[in-house]
Amino acid sequence: MNAIEYKNIRMAYGDRVIIEDFSLAIPQGEFITIIGSSGCGKTTLLKMVNGLVEPTGGEVYVGGENVSRADITKLRRSIGYAIQGSVLFPHMTVEKNIAYVPNLLNKRDKQRTAEAVRKWMGIVRLDDSLRKRYPDQLSGGQQQRVGIARSLAASPDLLLMDEPFGAVDEITRASLQDEIARIHRETGITILFVTHDINEALRLGTRMLVMDRGAALQYDTPEAIRKQPANQFVQALLRRAL
Ligand SMILES: Nc1ncnc2c1ncn2[C@@H]1O[C@H](COP(=O)(O)OP(=O)(O)OP(=O)(O)O)[C@@H](O)[C@H]1O
Ligand SMILES: [Mg+2]
Q1: How far is CA 171 from CA 24, 80, 231, in A?
Q2: 104/114 Cα distance (integer angstroms)
Q3: What pairs with residue 207 in β-bridges?
C-alpha cells in the first residue's frame, strides 16, 4: 500500500503556477528525502499531506484516503510534523509541548504520557532539567529538538520533516540523523524529509526525490541516483556530495 500518493497535482498562487502536473507514489515505510532549489515547491508538497495547503488541481491520498475528503483534525493527529524554526506553544512548558498530542489521544493515562515525554526528551538529547522551561527560555537548537520530540511523541505512522535539523550544530545534527535513522528502522514509520544538504539526503533516504521548479527530476534510491544522475541539475547537486 502507498502511504502517500500525489495524483496530477497542480498548484497556483493567483496566476503564478508553481506546480504543473506532479504525480508520485510513496510506499509505506520509506524514508524519502526531498532536495531541490529554493522555492521549487517542497514545503508546499509536504503541507498538502496534512491539509495545510490545498492543491488547485489533482488529489493527494494519505493511507488511501483522499485528503480533501478526510477529517482534517483526525488526519493531523496521526501525522507528525516537524519544521525549521520554532512552532512550539509559547505558553506551554517543554513537557506540556511534547505531551500535547499524547494527551489528546490518551487523556486518562497520565503515567503513559509522562513516560513518552521522558523517552523522547532522551532520544533528542534534551536534558531533563529543561522540562519546566518555556520555549523562550531555550536556545534555537533546543527549541528545534523539542519540536522534533513533539512530532514523534504521538507515535505517528507518518512523519513530515521540513529542514528539521537546520538550526543545530554539526555534532547534534549528526546524532539527530543517527536517531531518526534508528527510529525509522525500528518503527517502520514513513518519513518525508526536506533538506538542503545533499549529504544528509543521500545518507538518510531509502529513496530521494530531486526537484526543480515544481517538477520531480529524479526519484530513486541514493545509490541509483549516484550511479546514474538523470540530468545536469542532479549531477551538479552530486558534486557537492562527500
Ligand atoms: N501562500 C503563498 N502565496 C503565494 N506564493 C506562495 C505561497 N506559499 C508559497 N508560495 C510560493 O510558492 C513557491 C514554492 O514555495 P515552497 O515554500 O513550497 O518552496 P520550497 O521548495 O519549500 O523552498 P525553500 O527551499 O526555500 O523552503 C515559491 O515560489 C513561493 O514563493
Ligand atoms: Mg521550504
Answers
A1: 34, 24, 33
A2: 13
A3: 32
Cβ of 19 closer than 6 Å to ligand 1, yes or no, is: no
Task: Using the mean position of ligand 2's atoms as its centre, give its distance from the Cα of residue 88 in Å.
Answer: 18
Given a contact cutoff of 8 angstroms between Cβ atoms, the answer to whether 191 and 31 are in contact is: yes
Asked if residue 23 is part of any domain, the answer here is yes
Tell me the residue type at 145. Answer: R
- Judge whether 125 lies within some domain: no
pTM listed for this prediction: 0.92
Q: Write the single-letter amino acid at 156.
A: P
Whichever domain contains 11, its CATH number is 3.40.50.300
Q: What torsion do the CA atoms of 116, 142, 201, 62 make, to the nearest 10 degrees? A: 40
Is residue 106 over pLDDT 80? no
Report whether 98 contacts 136 (CB < 8 A).
Answer: no
pLDDT digits (tens, 9 = 90+) for 191-237: 999 999 999 999 999 999 999 999 999 999 999 999 999 999 999 99
Domain count, the chain: 1
- For residue 82, which of 50, 112, 117, 130 has the smallest C-alpha distance? 50
Q: Which residues contact 42 (CB under 8 A, 6 or more apart)?
A: 34, 36, 162, 194, 211
Q: Is 229 helix (H, G, I), strand (E, B) or coil?
A: coil
How many A from CA of 39 to the centre of ligand 2? Answer: 7
